[in-house]
Amino acid sequence: MSNKVFKRVAATLLAVLLLFYVGLQIYNSNHSSIQTETATYMTASDTIETTGYIVRNETYLTSDAGGVLNYVLEDGESVQAETSVQIAGVDDVRFEMSFVEEGLQLQLTYSCPAGSDEEVPLASYYDVSDSGFTIHYVGNETQSEGDMIYGTVTYLMNDSAVAAGEHSFTLSFQFPKLGKSYEYDVRYVKRADGTRQEVSADE
Which of 8-12, 46-50, 75-79 has the highest mean pLDDT? Predict the structure, then answer.
C-alpha cells in the first residue's frame, strides 16, 4: 500500500514540476529581463560663446625707400619661405636717345628699392612712319648704391632698311609685373649720307 502511495506522490510532484517548467518557459519567452525603449534618430548640437586671443607669429617689415608697392598675391593666400609677395615700383625713370652706326640707341634708366623683384622693361613702338624699323634688346645693367638699385636697359632701333627723310614713332617701355608703361615720342631726320639728327617737338 505504501508503495502505491509513494508512486502517486512521486507522479504528482513530477507533474507539478513539469507544469512549472513549461509555465516558466512560456513566461520567459514572452518577457525579457532587458528593458528596452523606443528610440528616434535625430542630431543634437550645443554651442558655447566665449572670447579668446589669436597669436600670430609674423615679422613686420619696413623700408625707407619710396615707390608704389604692387602685391602679387591675393589677400589670405599662403606663401612659402623666400617667396616674393610684392614688387617695389620704379622711380626716377629717364629716357635717352643717341645715334649709332646701325640706327638709334635707346636707353631707359630707372631706380628701385634694394631687394625688390627686378624686372627688365620691354620695349615696343607704334605710329611708325616707315615699316623698315626693327628693334633689338642689347642688355640691362644694374648697380646697387645703399638701399637703392639703379638700372639701365638698352635697345637698338635699327633703321638700316629705312629710307632717308624725316621719321617719327612712339616708343613704349613696359614693366609687365608693375602694370606700368612709359612712352616717348621720337622724331629725327635720316640723311642720304647716313647721318642723323633729332627733330625737336617745336619744329
Answer: 46-50
